[in-house]
């Protein structure tokens, strides 16, 4: 506790490489979270994800992206001072006591898309979007968090690893092992989150990497060269079972409460071909956000009884 | 007629929910057993017993200690499981049929209207809990006598509102059905067209092969495709028209107006997709297909790049952004 500006009060979580404490900024009395990264245990220096997190959070400043207030060293450990965000979308989706309306979903989607749009416009790929990483502030604002897998958009020659994004939210090009993917992988994740918000259960829950392909294509149709040029050149494409893409009517039946515009948005975010998948800007401009009901006021969404 | 009495006597009989306490018939043995209640005392009696006991005219309730005289035509099916709820709903229905003023009748004076509602609630409560029943009933009757015309008018009005609503529902249902039919029609037509095109191509090609007509294979295929395109389609046009009608339909417009009006005071800031946070004054405009960068152009052709979703415009946009970044940014101003 060597930093005089902040206090650590309670341990709230522990991961493989970091411990999270609840604390206060002493000068202002504001609640904060301190992520203490255990550098001393790593012989090879700092963990990769810690470097990524610091690197990109420093750059980003947006109401829908988590705010890093400060960084300091104490006892050989790196400490990130982050704004305090009490809950996340995963908790909300799983809590059977919380009822939310289509207007609430719209508000969440809107905030998420704005946050991710800002990330993309700064040439950063998030690569780990899932409900668990969309934190919610005390006044209901969604904040995109956990930049441990983020990276800057590579130069055209650079090779990317396809082993990113939590499995259920992984875009088809990643499942195929693409090495030159784009922002489109993040949009896919948001599309799956959108579906999950409407269903309140995970939309594409694959048990392992192979099964994830099966589940994804059974729900959304197996891509062919016609809708996605050159998809058949991916290794592993040939072994696939061909499923037809779902018709509008089938989608309507699956998402009973969704409006036509909501389905259009979801379809375009879950487009197989990353070329034709909508960008975050296109998503934000779609009719779904303009039609009634208006998105709820974030502060009015009740997250607990 | 107090609730206490009801529950008191019910306890003696109501051990088994699915058994008629009078004839002891069980739902297990006769699955189509139906229970009826009479608003006089709300004792539950099965249909057969009602027929048996009350067919010859009014008779006393067969429950022990209940001395109400019941008539067969007043019996009805119980909607709510809880007798107390059933009773309150009935009372409300009766009272609201008489006390049916709306806000308009008070010239939109909310305070007066609320006072009136409070009075009505008082009457309902009294009747429900057996307080001053005689007096309250008297009140109800006097009011009814005094306001006969008004009550009738209001009844007419609410009837009309109901009618409007059901009309609208019917309209929307019809439209939906029509839409579905059209969509199916389009799908079918498309399938048919596809097949027709396939056949036509084969036919024409075989004709060409036989030497009766010249022409390149590709030309033939192109020709057939174009005809198919032109064929699309009366159903599609109809669907578009229908969508237009739906958008402009009078019922819908009404609700939209109401929705917009209701929502307005809440948010004074109009909705914009980016919440006002979008750089529309970039210092460059991305051109399409106008850059010649051999490296990128070559990469664009490689299948592993194409399949991954690689897009040259992303590359150019980034390069241009970085090239122009910081231009027009005065450091001394930023510092201040």
Automatic annotation (TrEMBL), chain A:
EC identifiers of the protein: 2.7.11.23
Binding positions for ATP per the UniProt entry: 12-20, 35
Keyword Acetylation: no
Record-annotated active site: 128
GO BP terms in the entry: positive regulation of transcription elongation by RNA polymerase II
Keywords: ATP-binding, Kinase, Nucleotide-binding, Phosphoprotein, Serine/threonine-protein kinase, Transferase
Cited SMART domains: S_TKc
Keyword Nucleotide-binding: yes
Gene Ontology MF terms: ATP binding; cyclin-dependent protein serine/threonine kinase activity; RNA polymerase II CTD heptapeptide repeat kinase activity
Positions of the Protein kinase domain: 6-289
CDD domains, sorted: STKc_CDK7
GO cellular component, one term: transcription factor TFIIK complex
Family stated for the protein in its record: Belongs to the protein kinase superfamily. CMGC Ser/Thr protein kinase family. CDC2/CDKX subfamily.
Name of the molecule in the record: [RNA-polymerase]-subunit kinase
Organism: Maudiozyma humilis (Sour dough yeast)
UniProtKB/TrEMBL annotation, chain B:
GO biological process entries: nucleotide-excision repair; regulation of transcription by RNA polymerase II
Keywords of this entry: Coiled coil, Metal-binding, Nucleus, Transcription, Transcription regulation, Zinc, Zinc-finger
Tagged with keyword Metal-binding: yes
Start and end residues of each RING-type domain: 20-62
Coiled coil residues, start to end: 103-199
InterPro entries named in the record: MAT1/Tfb3, MAT1_centre, Znf_RING, Znf_RING/FYVE/PHD, Znf_RING_CS
Signal peptide: none
A UniProt-annotated Pfam family: MAT1
Localization in the cell: Nucleus
Domain of life: Eukaryota
GO molecular function annotations of the record: cyclin-dependent protein serine/threonine kinase activator activity; zinc ion binding
CDD domains according to UniProt: RING-HC_TFB3-like
Described purpose of this protein according to its UniProt entry: Acts as component of the general transcription and DNA repair factor IIH (TFIIH or factor B), which is essential for both basal and activated transcription, and is involved in nucleotide excision repair (NER) of damaged DNA.
NCBIfam families documented for this protein: cdk7
Protein name: RNA polymerase II transcription factor B subunit 3
Species per Swiss-Prot/TrEMBL record: Maudiozyma humilis
């Amino acid at each position: 506790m060597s930093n005089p500006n902040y206090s650590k009060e309670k341990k709230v979580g522990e991961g493989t490489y970091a411990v999270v404490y609840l604390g206060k900024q002493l000068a202002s009395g504001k609640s904060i979270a301190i992520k203490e990264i255990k550098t001393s245990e790593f012989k090879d220096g700092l963990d990769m994800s810690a470097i990524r997190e610091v690197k990109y959070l420093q750059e980003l400043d947006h109401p829908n992206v988590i705010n890093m207030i400060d960084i300091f060293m104490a006892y050989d450990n790196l400490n990130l001072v982050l704004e305090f965000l009490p809950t996340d979308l995963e908790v909300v989706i799983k809590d059977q006591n919380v009822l939310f309306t289509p207007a609430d979903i719209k508000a969440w989607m809107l905030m998420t898309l704005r946050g991710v749009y800002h990330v993309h416009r700064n040439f950063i790929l998030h690569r780990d979007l899932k409900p668990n990483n969309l934190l919610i502030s005390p006044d209901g604002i969604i904040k995109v968090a956990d930049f441990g897998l983020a990276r800057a958009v590579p130069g055209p020659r650079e090779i990317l690893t396809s082993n990113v994004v939590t499995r259920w939210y992984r875009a088809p090009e990643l499942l195929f092992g693409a090495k030159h993917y784009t922002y489109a992988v993040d949009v896919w994740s948001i599309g799956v989150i959108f579906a999950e918000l409407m269903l309140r259960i995970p939309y594409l829950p694959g048990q392992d990497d192979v099964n994830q392909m099966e589940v994804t294509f059974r729900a959304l149709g197996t891509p062919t060269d016609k809708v996605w040029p050159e998809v058949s050149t991916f290794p592993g494409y040939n072994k696939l079972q061909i499923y037809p893409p779902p018709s509008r009517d089938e989608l309507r039946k699956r998402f009973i409460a969704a409006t036509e515009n909501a389905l259009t948005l979801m379809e375009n975010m879950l487009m197989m071909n990353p070329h034709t998948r909508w960008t975050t800007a296109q998503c934000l401009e779609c009719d779904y956000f303009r039609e009634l009901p208006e998105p709820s006021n974030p502060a009015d969404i009740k997250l607990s009884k | 007629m107090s609730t206490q009495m009801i529950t008191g006597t019910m306890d003696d009989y109501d051990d088994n929910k699915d058994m008629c306490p009078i004839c002891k018939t069980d739902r297990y043995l006769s699955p189509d057993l139906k229970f009826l209640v009479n608003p006089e005392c709300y004792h539950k009696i099965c249909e057969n017993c009602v027929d048996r006991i009350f067919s010859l005219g009014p008779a006393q309730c067969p429950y022990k200690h209940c001395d109400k005289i019941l008539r067969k035509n007043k019996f009805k099916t119980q909607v709510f499981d809880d007798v107390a709820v059933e009773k309150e709903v009935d009372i409300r229905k009766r009272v609201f049929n008489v006390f049916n003023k709306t806000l308009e009748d008070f010239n939109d004076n909310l305070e007066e209207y609320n006072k009136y509602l409070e009075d009505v609630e008082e009457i309902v409560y009294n009747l429900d809990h057996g307080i001053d029943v005689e007096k309250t009933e008297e009140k109800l009757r006097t009011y009814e006598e005094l306001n006969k015309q008004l009550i009738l008018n209001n009844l007419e009005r609410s009837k009309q509102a109901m009618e409007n609503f059901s009309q609208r529902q019917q309209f929307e249902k019809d439209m939906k059905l029509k839409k579905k039919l059209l969509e199916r029609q389009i799908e079918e037509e498309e399938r048919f067209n596809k097949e027709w095109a396939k056949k036509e191509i084969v036919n024409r090609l075989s004709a060409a092969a036989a030497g009766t007509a010249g022409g390149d294979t590709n030309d033939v295929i192109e020709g057939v495709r174009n005809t198919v395109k032109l064929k699309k389609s009366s159903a599609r046009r109809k669907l578009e028209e229908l969508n237009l009608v739906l958008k402009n339909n009078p019922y819908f417009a009404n609700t939209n107006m109401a929705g917009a009006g209701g929502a307005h005071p809440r948010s004074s800031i109009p909705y914009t997709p980016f919440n006002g946070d979008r750089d529309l004054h970039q210092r460059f405009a991305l051109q399409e297909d106008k850059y010649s960068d051999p490296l990128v152009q070559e990469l664009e052709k490689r299948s592993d790049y194409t399949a991954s979703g690689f897009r040259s415009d992303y590359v150019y946009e980034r390069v241009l952004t970085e090239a122009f970044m910081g231009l027009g940014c005065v450091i001394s101003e930023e510092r201040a």
